[in-house]
Design the sequence.
């Protein structure tokens, strides 16, 4: 075997006395895709931060081609040849593709070591770099004129522009749909052939098996082990991540279905010909109490737009919305909340959490907002509320006073669900509630949704993971190209749903 | 053991958000005391408390009130640069409502009406700012720039472009009078502070304001009435500027549309920042802003008592403010510490 290009030995990192990484080893070989797996809070993010110089390490060493390195900033790491692409695209949407790729490193010309930017060279090199990953686009156009997937690849091109030896991808696929993931993987295979060592972090098991050659699993800040992908089955991988057998939880019978009687009673929520120009073609939607309605569709199919219309974040310009048979029209979320609607948005960081406020305050926020400013929850009441949900949903946090931004993604998501459950909603709209969180947390969230539905709460479950929708929903509404294309009963196979969506499932 | 315990408490004090502001204030007070022996002396004379410390509190009062209003606006990620102009407008309205009679006991309207009129107009100014920001969606600095520029003109329209002298003695109670031995203005600041503090802590307003400042979208999605609260924040800032306008016009016994509260907005922003509230919004501290106002006033006092020539005193002030800001910046302190430790690291590398 060739020697590793990058090797981590005995990495130790503590935050405020708590171990985030404990004696972790990792070896990346050239021409290999190495998957880094683990639950939220297992230490994946910290490991990447150590590698890229965002945080310093307390013990251990990093060897790049056998030499010890001490990256003290992401820029430093990149100069050493370690490039990183993060989960969210960290580019400037208002700059051109070429500008994004070269920002901070523009080829220069002229006197004084180049006092001006060499635009011809910039554009030429940008095209070359993109060609390396098989992308042929106009590099002078602004970034936003391209899809998220293309933006993600531009981010990779930016990361690669310096002679990189190691490429780190931190959940690059969580905002991509299946087709885009396939394109990204083509790029990764190409880079692998060019001899790059790739570290790939994801929560999607099927992607791990589709692309990776080797797997390292972390659990509770320690390394569980390293395996060639071909020797570690999915069940064994999950068991390694969780440290327990999860087989029982995976098998779930379909929820009961009585779609015929549904139409008889008054629906909790009844939308007729609800639509907004350019965003969503008019559609009908009925949700009864105690029902889980799945919404399946690709990115950009109108799923989020539908949720926003129902929650008063966008105003419909046609159609009618009824709650308990009474016509309503929401111009603000506050009005929708007063009618018992709750909404967990897809963009957890941007639209969900208030990062610097404590876990306790974040959980209490929606309930407090509905109660108004005058009747204030005391600290004790907030604590009781937060404690109840922390226990019920299994949120892992050192204290309730911890800023929520410091929690892992899965725990943030659970806290957001807790925020809404505290308002005792009648209809909970969940937009991609399991995105970017680990298998165990996913399972717990799904279980919680089913339990809530059994108590009479209605749930609108929006997800791009068809398997989840199929497993949980009483009815599945399928969207395509901002239009409702059909409604399927529970028990429909994944393939049927995929067929209707108009894309085969990878 | 005793030593480490002491160091622990010192460290936790410095990590408290009010740590650096308090240290700065104490340092400036100590400097003052070092240069004038009588600085800390406070005495009871003619039923009033006299002394430099009381003087600083009294003179800082208008700035402290304006800074409190500014804190709330900054908490919502906003800024209000119109407060100086609103101070001038409120003073002009009060002077107009009192009228130009030279007799010490004659006023056009009764005193309560004068106060309500001045505060009412200031509140309207704040509402105007709030509407531009919350409803029209303007950038706060531009929205309040409009009134900052127009406000001086409005104040001069009210005073007919003249400096109106006020002769009505009962009005001087606010900015120049005493209550229970202390200047009335100190009581007024305390009242505003306590009312605001109660409103922030006993209701959920504090939580909402912070949520809006940290993540406006998330706050809105969670059902917080962000627009209404933002409007309220600017209205309150206007009201505070109105209070300051009354304090200032009553203290100098005149209304000057051109110069009353000139550049007060900048001092107020500085006070809020010195007090430990970041201009990026979110977490805020009311006590910090009051301390910030006191720091500015103590500094001014120090510059005068040192006998710095008036033509350079702004330069001295700027240098001190710069030093204080650098001291309060965690990043700067870290750089200094790193720099100070550098030779040691170099040696260890040589040894290796």
Sequence:
């Amino acid at each position: 075997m060739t020697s590793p290009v990058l090797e981590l030995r005995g990495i130790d990192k503590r935050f405020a006395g708590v171990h985030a990484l404990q004696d972790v080893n990792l070896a990346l070989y050239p021409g290999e895709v190495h998957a880094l797996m683990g639950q939220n809070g297992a230490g994946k993010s910290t490991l990447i931060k150590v590698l890229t110089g965002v945080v310093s390490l307390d013990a251990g060493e990093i060897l790049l081609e056998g030499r010890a390195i001490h990256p003290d900033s992401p820029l430093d790491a990149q100069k050493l040849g370690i490039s990183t692409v993060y989960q969210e695209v960290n580019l400037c949407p208002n700059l051109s593709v070429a500008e994004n790729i070269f920002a901070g490193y523009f080829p220069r010309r002229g006197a004084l070591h180049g006092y001006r930017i060499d635009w011809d060279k910039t554009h030429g090199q940008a095209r070359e770099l993109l060609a390396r990953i098989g992308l042929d686009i106009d590099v002078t156009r602004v970034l936003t004129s391209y899809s998220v997937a293309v933006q993600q690849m531009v981010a990779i091109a930016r990361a690669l522009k310096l002679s990189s030896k190691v490429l780190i991808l931190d959940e690059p696929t969580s905002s991509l749909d299946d087709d885009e993931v396939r394109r990204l993987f083509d790029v990764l295979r190409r880079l692998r052939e060019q001899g790059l060592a790739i570290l790939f972090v994801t929560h999607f098991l099927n992607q791990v098996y589709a692309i990776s050659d080797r797997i390292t699993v972390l659990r509770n800040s320690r390394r569980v082990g390293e395996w060639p992908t071909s020797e570690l089955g999915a069940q064994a991988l999950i068991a390694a991540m969780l440290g327990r057998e999860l087989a029982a939880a995976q098998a779930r019978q379909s929820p009961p279905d009585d779609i015929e009687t549904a139409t008889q009673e008054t629906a909790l929520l009844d939308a007729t010909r609800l639509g907004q120009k350019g965003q969503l073609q008019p559609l009908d939607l009925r949700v009864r109490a105690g029902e889980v309605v799945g919404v399946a569709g690709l990115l950009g199919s109108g799923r989020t737009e539908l949720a926003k219309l129902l929650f008063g974040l966008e105003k419909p310009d046609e159609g009618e919305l009824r709650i308990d048979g009474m016509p309503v029209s929401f111009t603000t979320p506050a009005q929708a909340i007063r009618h018992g609607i709750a909404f967990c948005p897809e963009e957890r960081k941007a639209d969900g959490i208030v990062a610097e406020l404590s876990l306790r305050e974040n959980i209490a926020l929606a309930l407090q907002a509905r109660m108004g400013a005058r009747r204030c929850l005391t600290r004790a009441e907030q604590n009781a509320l937060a404690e109840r949900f922390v226990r019920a949903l299994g949120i892992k946090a050192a204290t309730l006073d911890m800023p929520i931004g410091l929690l892992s993604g899965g725990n943030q998501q659970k806290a957001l669900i807790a925020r809404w459950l505290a308002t005792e909603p009648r209809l909970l709209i969940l937009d991609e509630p399991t995105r970017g969180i680990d298998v165990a947390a996913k399972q717990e969230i799904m279980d919680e949704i089913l339990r809530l539905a059994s108590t009479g709460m209605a749930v609108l479950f929006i997800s791009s993971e068809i398997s989840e929708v199929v497993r949980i929903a009483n009815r599945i509404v399928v969207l395509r190209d901002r239009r409702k294309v059909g409604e399927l009963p529970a028990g429909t196979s994944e393939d049927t749903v995929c067929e209707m969506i108009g894309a085969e499932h990878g | 053991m005793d030593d480490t315990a002491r160091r622990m408490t010192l460290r936790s004090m410095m990590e408290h958000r009010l740590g650096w502001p308090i240290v700065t204030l104490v340092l400036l007070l100590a400097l003052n005391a070092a240069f004038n022996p009588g600085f800390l002396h406070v005495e009871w004379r003619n039923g009033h408390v006299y002394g430099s410390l009381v003087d600083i509190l009294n003179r800082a009062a208008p700035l402290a009130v304006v800074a409190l209003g500014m804190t709330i606006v900054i908490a919502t990620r906003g800024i209000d640069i119109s407060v100086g102009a609103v101070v001038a407008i409120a003073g002009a309205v009060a002077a107009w409502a009192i009228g130009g009679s030279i007799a010490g006991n004659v006023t056009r309207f009764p005193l309560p009406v004068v106060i309500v009129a001045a505060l009412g107009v200031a509140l309207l100014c704040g509402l105007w700012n709030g509407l531009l920001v919350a409803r029209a969606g303007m950038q706060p600095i531009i929205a309040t720039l409009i009134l900052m520029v127009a406000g001086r003109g409005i104040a001069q329209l009210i005073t007919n472009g003249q400096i109106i002298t006020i002769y009505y003695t009962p009005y001087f109670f606010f900015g120049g009078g005493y209550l229970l031995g202390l200047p009335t203005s100190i009581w007024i600041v305390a009242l505003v502070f306590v009312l605001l503090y109660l409103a922030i802590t006993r209701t959920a307003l504090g939580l909402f304001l912070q949520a809006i400042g940290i993540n406006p979208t998330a706050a809105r999605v969670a059902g917080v009435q962000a627009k209404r609260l933002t409007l309220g924040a600017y209205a309150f800032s206007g009201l505070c500027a109105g209070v300051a306008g009354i304090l200032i016009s009553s203290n100098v016994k005149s209304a000057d549309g051109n110069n009353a509260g000139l550049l007060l907005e900048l001092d107020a922003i500085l006070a809020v920042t010195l007090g430990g509230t970041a201009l990026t919004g979110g977490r805020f501290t009311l006590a910090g802003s009051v301390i910030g106002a006191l720091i500015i006033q103590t500094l001014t006092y120090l510059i005068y008592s040192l006998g710095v020539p008036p033509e350079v005193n702004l330069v001295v002030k700027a240098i001190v403010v710069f030093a204080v800001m650098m001291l309060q910046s965690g990043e700067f302190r870290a750089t200094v510490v790193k720099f100070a430790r550098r030779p040691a690291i170099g040696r260890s590398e040589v040894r290796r």
User: Anything to note?
Assistant: Residues 178-193 of chain A form the longest helix (16 residues).
